[in-house]
Amino acid sequence: MTYTRLPTSHLDKTAGLMRPACVLPDRVGLDNPAFDVMTDFRRLTAFIATPGDTIQQAEERMIRRKVRLLFVMDNHDRVAGLITSTDIHGEKPMQIVQSRGIRRDEVLVADIMTPVERLEAVDYDDIAHARVGHVLETLKARGRQHALVIEHTENGQMVRGLLSLSQLCKQLGVTVETTEVADTFLEIEQQLAHV
Prior knowledge:
The strands form 2 sheets. This protein has a 4-stranded mixed sheet with strand order 1-8-7-6. The protein contains 8 helices and 8 strands. The termini are far apart. The radius of gyration is 20 Å and the shape is globular. By secondary structure, the chain is α/β, with parallel strands linked by helices. A hairpin with a 2-residue loop joins strand 7 and strand 8. It has helices spanning 55-65, 85-89, 92-100, 109-112, 124-128, 132-142, 165-172, 181-193; strands at residues 38-40, 48-49, 69-73, 79-84, 114-115, 121-123, 146-153, 156-164. The protein has one domain (34-190): CBS-domain (Roll), CATH 3.10.580.10.
Protein backbone atom coordinates (compact mmCIF):
# COMPACT_ATOMS: atom_id res chain seq x y z
CA MET A 1 0.00 0.00 0.00
CA THR A 2 1.23 3.50 -0.81
CA TYR A 3 0.66 6.23 1.76
CA THR A 4 0.40 9.86 0.82
CA ARG A 5 1.05 12.84 3.00
CA LEU A 6 -1.94 14.38 4.73
CA PRO A 7 -2.64 18.05 4.02
CA THR A 8 -1.43 20.47 6.71
CA SER A 9 -2.19 24.05 7.65
CA HIS A 10 -0.88 26.58 10.14
CA LEU A 11 -2.49 26.88 13.53
CA ASP A 12 -4.14 30.24 14.04
CA LYS A 13 -3.80 32.38 17.16
CA THR A 14 -7.34 31.64 18.35
CA ALA A 15 -6.86 27.86 18.49
CA GLY A 16 -7.96 26.19 21.70
CA LEU A 17 -7.27 22.73 23.04
CA MET A 18 -9.87 19.96 23.12
CA ARG A 19 -10.09 18.28 26.49
CA PRO A 20 -12.11 15.35 27.73
CA ALA A 21 -15.50 16.53 28.87
CA CYS A 22 -17.97 14.96 31.24
CA VAL A 23 -20.99 17.12 30.58
CA LEU A 24 -23.58 16.65 33.29
CA PRO A 25 -27.06 18.14 33.01
CA ASP A 26 -27.51 21.48 34.76
CA ARG A 27 -30.65 20.28 36.53
CA VAL A 28 -31.77 16.86 37.70
CA GLY A 29 -34.56 15.41 39.75
CA LEU A 30 -34.47 12.44 42.11
CA ASP A 31 -35.81 10.18 39.31
CA ASN A 32 -33.07 11.04 36.78
CA PRO A 33 -30.58 8.25 35.98
CA ALA A 34 -27.67 8.14 38.46
CA PHE A 35 -25.26 8.58 35.53
CA ASP A 36 -26.53 12.18 35.30
CA VAL A 37 -24.67 13.01 38.54
CA MET A 38 -21.58 10.81 38.18
CA THR A 39 -18.25 12.27 37.12
CA ASP A 40 -17.03 9.65 34.66
CA PHE A 41 -13.23 9.27 34.53
CA ARG A 42 -13.45 7.83 31.03
CA ARG A 43 -14.62 11.27 29.95
CA LEU A 44 -12.92 13.59 32.44
CA THR A 45 -9.43 13.47 33.87
CA ALA A 46 -9.14 12.67 37.56
CA PHE A 47 -6.70 14.96 39.33
CA ILE A 48 -4.06 13.43 41.54
CA ALA A 49 -1.54 14.01 44.29
CA THR A 50 1.22 11.79 45.65
CA PRO A 51 1.68 10.80 49.30
CA GLY A 52 4.88 12.88 49.44
CA ASP A 53 3.25 16.13 48.28
CA THR A 54 2.76 18.77 50.96
CA ILE A 55 -0.81 19.71 51.79
CA GLN A 56 -0.01 23.17 50.44
CA GLN A 57 0.91 21.65 47.05
CA ALA A 58 -2.29 19.61 47.10
CA GLU A 59 -4.39 22.66 47.93
CA GLU A 60 -2.75 24.70 45.16
CA ARG A 61 -3.52 21.90 42.70
CA MET A 62 -7.17 21.82 43.85
CA ILE A 63 -7.51 25.58 43.40
CA ARG A 64 -5.86 25.51 39.98
CA ARG A 65 -8.07 22.62 38.80
CA LYS A 66 -11.23 23.94 40.53
CA VAL A 67 -11.79 20.68 42.41
CA ARG A 68 -12.14 19.81 46.09
CA LEU A 69 -10.77 16.26 45.95
CA LEU A 70 -7.57 14.64 44.67
CA PHE A 71 -6.82 10.97 44.24
CA VAL A 72 -3.58 10.05 45.96
CA MET A 73 -1.60 7.69 43.72
CA ASP A 74 1.34 5.58 44.85
CA ASN A 75 4.52 4.99 42.84
CA HIS A 76 2.91 1.89 41.21
CA ASP A 77 0.03 4.05 39.87
CA ARG A 78 -2.44 2.55 42.32
CA VAL A 79 -4.93 4.49 44.44
CA ALA A 80 -3.37 5.04 47.86
CA GLY A 81 -6.19 7.23 49.16
CA LEU A 82 -8.06 10.51 48.79
CA ILE A 83 -7.48 14.00 50.09
CA THR A 84 -10.16 16.67 50.17
CA SER A 85 -10.16 20.37 50.85
CA THR A 86 -12.06 19.54 54.05
CA ASP A 87 -9.11 17.36 55.13
CA ILE A 88 -6.68 20.21 54.46
CA HIS A 89 -8.74 22.81 56.33
CA GLY A 90 -9.91 20.51 59.13
CA GLU A 91 -8.28 19.47 62.38
CA LYS A 92 -5.97 16.78 60.96
CA PRO A 93 -3.12 19.11 59.90
CA MET A 94 -2.99 20.82 63.30
CA GLN A 95 -3.00 17.46 65.07
CA ILE A 96 0.02 16.40 62.98
CA VAL A 97 1.77 19.73 63.65
CA GLN A 98 1.26 19.36 67.40
CA SER A 99 2.08 15.66 67.67
CA ARG A 100 5.25 15.82 65.58
CA GLY A 101 6.42 19.32 66.40
CA ILE A 102 6.60 20.34 62.73
CA ARG A 103 5.39 23.35 60.77
CA ARG A 104 2.09 23.24 58.88
CA ASP A 105 3.94 23.57 55.56
CA GLU A 106 5.74 20.30 56.37
CA VAL A 107 2.52 18.28 56.69
CA LEU A 108 2.29 15.76 53.85
CA VAL A 109 -0.70 14.40 51.95
CA ALA A 110 0.10 10.94 53.38
CA ASP A 111 -0.32 12.35 56.91
CA ILE A 112 -3.95 13.39 56.49
CA MET A 113 -5.39 11.53 53.47
CA THR A 114 -8.10 8.92 53.81
CA PRO A 115 -6.23 5.69 53.03
CA VAL A 116 -7.54 3.34 50.34
CA GLU A 117 -8.56 0.67 52.86
CA ARG A 118 -11.06 3.13 54.40
CA LEU A 119 -12.64 4.13 51.08
CA GLU A 120 -16.04 2.78 50.12
CA ALA A 121 -17.29 2.42 46.59
CA VAL A 122 -20.44 1.71 44.63
CA ASP A 123 -20.28 -0.77 41.76
CA TYR A 124 -20.65 0.73 38.27
CA ASP A 125 -23.24 -1.94 37.35
CA ASP A 126 -25.41 -0.78 40.28
CA ILE A 127 -25.13 2.86 39.13
CA ALA A 128 -26.31 1.78 35.67
CA HIS A 129 -29.68 0.80 37.16
CA ALA A 130 -29.95 3.50 39.83
CA ARG A 131 -31.59 6.91 40.05
CA VAL A 132 -30.35 10.19 41.55
CA GLY A 133 -32.49 9.49 44.64
CA HIS A 134 -30.50 6.28 45.22
CA VAL A 135 -27.25 8.25 45.07
CA LEU A 136 -28.56 10.78 47.60
CA GLU A 137 -29.69 8.02 49.97
CA THR A 138 -26.36 6.21 49.62
CA LEU A 139 -24.34 9.30 50.51
CA LYS A 140 -26.74 10.07 53.36
CA ALA A 141 -26.61 6.53 54.79
CA ARG A 142 -22.81 6.58 54.73
CA GLY A 143 -22.55 10.16 55.99
CA ARG A 144 -20.17 11.00 53.16
CA GLN A 145 -19.52 13.94 50.84
CA HIS A 146 -18.20 11.59 48.13
CA ALA A 147 -18.56 8.04 46.92
CA LEU A 148 -16.33 6.29 44.43
CA VAL A 149 -17.71 4.23 41.57
CA ILE A 150 -15.69 1.13 40.71
CA GLU A 151 -15.69 -1.02 37.61
CA HIS A 152 -14.29 -4.53 37.35
CA THR A 153 -12.02 -4.93 34.32
CA GLU A 154 -9.51 -7.52 33.12
CA ASN A 155 -6.89 -5.39 34.92
CA GLY A 156 -8.79 -5.68 38.20
CA GLN A 157 -10.80 -3.14 40.13
CA MET A 158 -10.64 0.38 38.63
CA VAL A 159 -12.12 3.64 39.92
CA ARG A 160 -14.49 4.61 37.10
CA GLY A 161 -16.19 7.63 38.60
CA LEU A 162 -17.05 9.88 41.49
CA LEU A 163 -20.32 10.87 43.10
CA SER A 164 -20.10 14.21 44.88
CA LEU A 165 -22.64 15.67 47.29
CA SER A 166 -21.76 19.24 46.29
CA GLN A 167 -22.22 18.39 42.57
CA LEU A 168 -25.49 16.61 43.35
CA CYS A 169 -26.81 19.62 45.30
CA LYS A 170 -25.87 21.95 42.48
CA GLN A 171 -27.72 19.81 39.93
CA LEU A 172 -30.76 19.43 42.20
CA GLY A 173 -30.88 23.22 42.56
CA VAL A 174 -30.38 22.97 46.31
CA THR A 175 -28.09 25.37 48.15
CA VAL A 176 -26.38 24.02 51.22
CA GLU A 177 -24.63 26.28 53.72
CA THR A 178 -23.11 23.85 56.21
CA THR A 179 -20.20 21.46 55.90
CA GLU A 180 -21.47 19.10 58.57
CA VAL A 181 -22.78 16.11 56.67
CA ALA A 182 -25.81 15.43 58.91
CA ASP A 183 -26.92 19.08 58.68
CA THR A 184 -26.34 19.05 54.94
CA PHE A 185 -28.78 16.19 54.38
CA LEU A 186 -31.37 17.86 56.62
CA GLU A 187 -31.08 21.04 54.52
CA ILE A 188 -31.42 19.07 51.28
CA GLU A 189 -34.53 17.28 52.49
CA GLN A 190 -36.11 20.55 53.63
CA GLN A 191 -35.41 22.26 50.31
CA LEU A 192 -36.59 19.29 48.23
CA ALA A 193 -39.83 19.19 50.23
CA HIS A 194 -40.61 22.72 49.00
CA VAL A 195 -40.00 21.91 45.32
